[in-house]
């Protein structure tokens, strides 16, 4: 893809978003190459949003065939496609969203992909995969220094994990009465530089351009060491959603046993242990949610996928456009209450 | 396993059946609407009706994923329905129309729905659908996005806040004198170019009589007011140049606007005591022809290029003028009108030492374009779809026992409201007891056959309402749409007229108030006239609504309305020339800025607007007004 200035056609097409993130970010996005692993419900949402946004290149890796169940949560496939390769069914529909984006569709299995394959990408998004697979991908992305997003859902409940390894972001905001100061702002984020500029029309307004260093941990490390102790106040700890320990339990279960099935007793016991590690009271667990997350395990649901996919795609666009501070580093979503906290591990 | 397997696992067999037999209305098939349509199709709503007035535009394609280049200029509603066919499993009914058009969408048409999803881009329609939802007690899921900011709010009539319970962002206003005499920002010059200059030259009637008695000039300086009036009259002279189609006279326009008028301003010394003086163009700048620079939309040319572009574009519009019946409206997507406004604004900016702007930037300000992206729309639509399950009480393990336990949703991280929350999900507040729409009055629907309109006398209607709800003798009756008095103790002139003779018809809303009680009065009732041709002749059925006695001082105060009406003379930036009130923030798509020195519509549209500022939850305004880094979000 050509670097440099946007054409008048591109400016007209992307008008409503250029007004949000500027010409430079739009031009940056055009040179970016992204890999999306798995075109499920969340993958469909992510590919839709980033193809519309005008990213340079997207490779979608998916070796599944369309099932009847896919029809209940995915919009790139129809009933006439059942039994076909999902990528074959979806590819024209995806390309149709934005003919300017270079798309590649790859049906090869993930485990057959090597370092050289991954090397060609600026960013990897892995959806709807087991924790053991995700950790393998994460090891590669760490080795190759590629940002990684992992997203998955269990019915109404979902999570996003982000590993950008280390990422320096620049934000601009209006200076408040208390100017921003250089130094750590949280366990994973530290402000390293602040420059100011005056508004060209209103001299009383001063903008701060803030450089923040975001550091990240691997998924493997998060699953070993995640805690909220000393990060949240006692009151905040009491209000942490039970989806957090439940999600972590399910992810770890996939590592320990490689097993998909988990019974109520085991989940209860392991989630309680996670509460201990996190430093949250066990009282946040409730039987109904535990039963539901077991029932709904691995289930895809369109509106949940829309929210999770939108969240991931927005962050991908932000970091490719080199704007705004990225997510850091673990988000869970409760589709019953629409609660969607961000945790730093 | 069949396609509904996952859904059934999540909501259960019974709820699945209920969903399959439910019917919903989706208002808007644009940014949020495309996303919502996809979500609610995949959630297997039995029947989905989609209303959208718009056609597809190129600038929609970055987010409205159901539309393609080849669909440009096609209706959104029908195109969307075609685009979803491969994954659709619901009955879809598209309408290309305005949801506020009562003849196409009468009140009883709305009654067929179990729930309404709003995916709108303007305040007028949001208010209208909210009102419909209140009259019919239909749950409404309201939503909106602007760039990274998004919100979703379920509205359960009588149980939770309605759309009008919290104060909405009001359009920006500028005093006339800032626009006419002392601009200090690019927007002042753009508003001048678009609303005064362009309208005066190309869109106004060719007569010089402006009603300016009730203008608020934003200044008491008599000299300046005189100058503004004088200048307005001179603009009519300029219009004659346009009509003459004599391109050689265009420099006269430049001379008048950018030399003579500026010199007159300079002569008013009061204005420049604390301000930098403007510098008029020179004769040589106007009369030295330069070659036209076809500059890119995102760059700013030199002043000399602006001047020569102004001359060229004026000539072009001059040629168009007679071909378009001597009337050209400003339209941000009409490149000629945009270019004219941009060059005129930039020349004025240059004169006043204000930075010039690119056409791209001026388009945003002049067209009031709101940035819009796919991701925010997807997130907000997802939240709307999810909460509909709880509004319809379809989640057995999370039963809806109290509607105020349900959640609204805001983008928290993206809107810079919180660093540790992607969405915030405050619980719904109960109705604001001062809300003019949902709480100050009782509401109901009068079902009328159309013959009744022509037969029934006003006095008959008054009597039957009085008797039905036990009002005392002394009452008043207003046409609520324009605050027209129809009846009170010393106004009985209309008594013998039929309803149609006094211009009551389908969609009219009347307000019936107790004017008698000293300490306790009967609460006022607003009644919607729903005329239905299907009804048998002579049908006029009043709703069974309980109208309670309340303390007397709770009645809507007319004095406030009048006060408000009198001070509405600031120059107001609003959505469109039909006088609808402007939405600046909530839209997914553009409206227009209009500058208008008269009170909007001259009506008392929102009588108690000023009272609702102490509304219980005002987070939406907060989201929009004061993005900060602090975590304002408190849950539970």
From TrEMBL, chain A:
<dbReference type="Pfam" id="PF00899">
    <property type="entry name" value="ThiF"/>
</dbReference>
<dbReference type="GO" id="GO:0019948">
    <property type="term" value="F:SUMO activating enzyme activity"/>
</dbReference>
<dbReference type="InterPro" id="IPR045886">
    <property type="entry name" value="ThiF/MoeB/HesA"/>
</dbReference>
<protein>
    <submittedName>
        <fullName>E1 ubiquitin-activating protein aos1</fullName>
    </submittedName>
</protein>
<dbReference type="GO" id="GO:0031510">
    <property type="term" value="C:SUMO activating enzyme complex"/>
</dbReference>
<feature type="domain" description="THIF-type NAD/FAD binding fold">
    <location>
        <begin position="14"/>
        <end position="342"/>
    </location>
</feature>
<dbReference type="GO" id="GO:0005737">
    <property type="term" value="C:cytoplasm"/>
</dbReference>
<dbReference type="GO" id="GO:0016925">
    <property type="term" value="P:protein sumoylation"/>
</dbReference>
<dbReference type="InterPro" id="IPR035985">
    <property type="entry name" value="Ubiquitin-activating_enz"/>
</dbReference>
<dbReference type="InterPro" id="IPR000594">
    <property type="entry name" value="ThiF_NAD_FAD-bd"/>
</dbReference>
Automatic annotation (TrEMBL), chain B:
<feature type="domain" description="Ubiquitin-activating enzyme SCCH">
    <location>
        <begin position="270"/>
        <end position="363"/>
    </location>
</feature>
<feature type="binding site">
    <location>
        <position position="438"/>
    </location>
    <ligand>
        <name>Zn(2+)</name>
    </ligand>
</feature>
<dbReference type="GO" id="GO:0005524">
    <property type="term" value="F:ATP binding"/>
</dbReference>
<keyword id="KW-0862">Zinc</keyword>
<feature type="binding site">
    <location>
        <position position="76"/>
    </location>
    <ligand>
        <name>ATP</name>
    </ligand>
</feature>
<dbReference type="InterPro" id="IPR019572">
    <property type="entry name" value="UBA_E1_SCCH"/>
</dbReference>
<dbReference type="InterPro" id="IPR035985">
    <property type="entry name" value="Ubiquitin-activating_enz"/>
</dbReference>
<dbReference type="InterPro" id="IPR023318">
    <property type="entry name" value="Ub_act_enz_dom_a_sf"/>
</dbReference>
<dbReference type="GO" id="GO:0005737">
    <property type="term" value="C:cytoplasm"/>
</dbReference>
<dbReference type="Pfam" id="PF10585">
    <property type="entry name" value="UBA_E1_SCCH"/>
</dbReference>
<comment type="pathway">
    <text>Protein modification; protein sumoylation.</text>
</comment>
<feature type="binding site">
    <location>
        <begin position="60"/>
        <end position="63"/>
    </location>
    <ligand>
        <name>ATP</name>
    </ligand>
</feature>
<dbReference type="InterPro" id="IPR033127">
    <property type="entry name" value="UBQ-activ_enz_E1_Cys_AS"/>
</dbReference>
<protein>
    <recommendedName>
        <fullName>Ubiquitin-activating enzyme E1-like</fullName>
    </recommendedName>
</protein>
<feature type="compositionally biased region" description="Polar residues">
    <location>
        <begin position="626"/>
        <end position="636"/>
    </location>
</feature>
<feature type="binding site">
    <location>
        <position position="52"/>
    </location>
    <ligand>
        <name>ATP</name>
    </ligand>
</feature>
<dbReference type="InterPro" id="IPR042449">
    <property type="entry name" value="Ub-E1_IAD_1"/>
</dbReference>
<dbReference type="InterPro" id="IPR000594">
    <property type="entry name" value="ThiF_NAD_FAD-bd"/>
</dbReference>
<keyword id="KW-0547">Nucleotide-binding</keyword>
<dbReference type="InterPro" id="IPR045886">
    <property type="entry name" value="ThiF/MoeB/HesA"/>
</dbReference>
<feature type="region of interest" description="Disordered">
    <location>
        <begin position="597"/>
        <end position="636"/>
    </location>
</feature>
<feature type="binding site">
    <location>
        <begin position="28"/>
        <end position="33"/>
    </location>
    <ligand>
        <name>ATP</name>
    </ligand>
</feature>
């Amino acid at each position: 893809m050509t670097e440099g200035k946007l054409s008048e056609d591109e400016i007209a097409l992307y008008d409503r978003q250029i007004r949000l993130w500027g010409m430079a970010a739009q031009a940056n996005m055009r040179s970016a190459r992204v890999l999306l692993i798995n075109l499920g419900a969340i993958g469909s949402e992510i590919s839709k949003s980033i193809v519309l946004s005008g990213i340079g290149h997207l490779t979608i890796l998916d070796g599944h065939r369309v099932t009847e169940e896919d029809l209940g949560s995915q919009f790139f496939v129809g009933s006439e496609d059942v039994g076909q390769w999902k990528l074959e069914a979806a590819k024209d529909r995806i390309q149709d969203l934005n003919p300017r984006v270079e798309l590649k569709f790859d049906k090869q299995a993930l485990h057959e992909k090597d370092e050289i394959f991954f090397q060609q990408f600026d960013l990897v998004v892995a959806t709807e995969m087991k924790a053991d697979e995700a950790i393998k991908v994460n090891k590669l992305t760490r080795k190759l220094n590629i940002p990684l997003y992992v997203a998955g859902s269990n019915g109404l409940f979902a999570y996003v994990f982000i590993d950008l390894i280390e990422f320096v972001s620049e934000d601009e905001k209006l200076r408040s009465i208390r100017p921003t100061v250089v130094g750590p702002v949280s366990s994973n984020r530290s402000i390293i530089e602040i420059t100011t500029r005056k508004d060209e029309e209103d001299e009383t307004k001063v903008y701060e351009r803030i450089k923040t260093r975001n550091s990240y941990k691997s998924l493997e490390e998060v699953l070993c060491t995640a805690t909220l102790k000393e990060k949240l106040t006692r009151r905040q700890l009491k209000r942490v959603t039970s989806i957090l320990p439940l999600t972590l339990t399910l992810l770890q279960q996939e590592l320990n046993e490689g097993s998909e099935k988990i019974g109520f007793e085991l989940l209860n016991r392991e989630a309680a242990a996670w509460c201990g590690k996190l430093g949250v009271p066990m009282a946040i667990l409730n039987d109904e949610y535990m039963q539901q997350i077991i029932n709904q395990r691995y289930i895809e649901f369109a509106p949940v996928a829309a929210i999770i996919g939108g969240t991931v795609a927005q962050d991908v666009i932000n970091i490719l456009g080199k704007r705004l501070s990225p997510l850091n580093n673990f988000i869970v979503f409760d589709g019953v209450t629409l609660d969607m906290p961000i945790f730093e591990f | 396993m069949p396609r509904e397997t996952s859904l059934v696992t999540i909501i259960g067999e019974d709820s699945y059946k209920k969903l399959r037999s439910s019917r919903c209305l989706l208002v808007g098939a644009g940014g949020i609407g495309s996303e919502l349509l996809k979500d609610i199709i995949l959630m297997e709503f039995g029947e989905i009706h989609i209303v959208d007035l718009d056609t597809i535009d190129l600038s929609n394609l970055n987010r409205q994923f159901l539309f393609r280049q080849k669909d440009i200029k096609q209706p959104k509603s029908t195109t969307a329905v075609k685009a979803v066919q491969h994954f659709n499993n619901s009955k879809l009914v598209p309408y290309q129309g305005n949801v506020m058009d009562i003849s196409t969408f009468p009140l009883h048409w709305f009654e067929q729905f179990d729930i309404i999803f709003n995916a709108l881009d303007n305040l007028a329609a949001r208010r209208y659908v909210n009102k419909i939802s209140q009259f019919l007690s239909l749950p409404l899921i309201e939503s909106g996005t602007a760039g990274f900011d998004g919100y979703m709010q379920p509205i359960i009539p009588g149980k939770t806040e309605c759309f009008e319970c919290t104060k909405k962002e009001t359009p920006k206003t500028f005093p006339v004198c800032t626009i006419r005499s002392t601009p200090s920002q690019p927007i002042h010059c753009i508003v001048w170019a678009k609303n005064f200059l362009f309208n005066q030259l190309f869109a106004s009637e060719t007569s010089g009589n402006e009603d300016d008695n009730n203008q608020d000039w934003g200044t008491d300086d008599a000299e300046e007011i005189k100058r503004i009036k004088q200048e307005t009259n001179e603009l009519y002279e300029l219009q004659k140049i346009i009509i003459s189609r004599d391109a050689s006279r265009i420099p006269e326009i430049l001379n008048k606007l950018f030399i003579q008028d500026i010199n007159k301003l300079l002569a008013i010394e009061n204005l420049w005591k604390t301000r930098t003086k403007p510098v008029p163009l020179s004769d040589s700048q106007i009369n030295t022809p330069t070659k036209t620079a076809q500059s890119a939309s995102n760059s700013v040319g030199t002043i000399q290029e602006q001047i020569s572009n102004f001359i060229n574009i004026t000539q072009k519009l001059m040629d168009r003028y007679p071909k378009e019946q001597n009337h050209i409206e400003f339209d941000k997507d009409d490149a000629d009108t945009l270019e004219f406004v941009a060059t005129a604004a930039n020349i004025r900016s240059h004169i006043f030492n204000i930075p010039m702007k690119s056409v791209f930037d001026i388009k945003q300000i002049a067209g009031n374009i709101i940035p819009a992206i796919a991701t925010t729309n997807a997130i907000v639509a997802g939240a709307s779809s999810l909460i509909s399950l709880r509004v319809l009480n379809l989640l057995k393990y999370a039963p809806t026992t109290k509607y105020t336990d349900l959640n609204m949703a805001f983008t928290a991280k993206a809107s810079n409201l919180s660093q540790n929350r992607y969405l915030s999900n405050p619980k719904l507040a109960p109705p604001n007891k001062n809300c003019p729409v949902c709480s100050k009055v009782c509401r109901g629907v009068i079902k009328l056959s159309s013959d009744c309109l022509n037969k029934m006398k006003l006095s008959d209607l008054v009597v039957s309402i009085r008797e039905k709800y036990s009002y005392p003798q002394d009452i008043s009756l207003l046409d609520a749409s324009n605050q027209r008095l129809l009846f009170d103790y010393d106004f009985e002139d209309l008594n013998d007229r039929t309803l149609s003779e006094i211009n009551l018809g389908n969609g009219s809303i009347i307000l019936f108030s107790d004017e008698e009680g000293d300490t306790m009065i009967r609460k006022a009732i607003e009644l919607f006239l729903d005329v239905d041709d299907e009804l048998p002749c002579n049908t006029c059925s009043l709703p069974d609504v309980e109208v309670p006695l309340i303390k007397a001082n709770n009645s809507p105060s007319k004095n406030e309305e009048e006060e408000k009406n009198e001070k509405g003379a600031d120059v107001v930036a609003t959505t469109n020339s039909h006088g609808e009130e402007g939405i600046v923030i909530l839209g997914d798509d553009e409206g227009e800025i209009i500058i208008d020195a008269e009170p909007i519509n001259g009506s008392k549209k929102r009588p108690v607007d000023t009272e609702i500022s102490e509304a219980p939850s005002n987070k939406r305004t907060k989201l929009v007004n004061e993005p900060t880094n602090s975590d304002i979000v408190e849950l539970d």
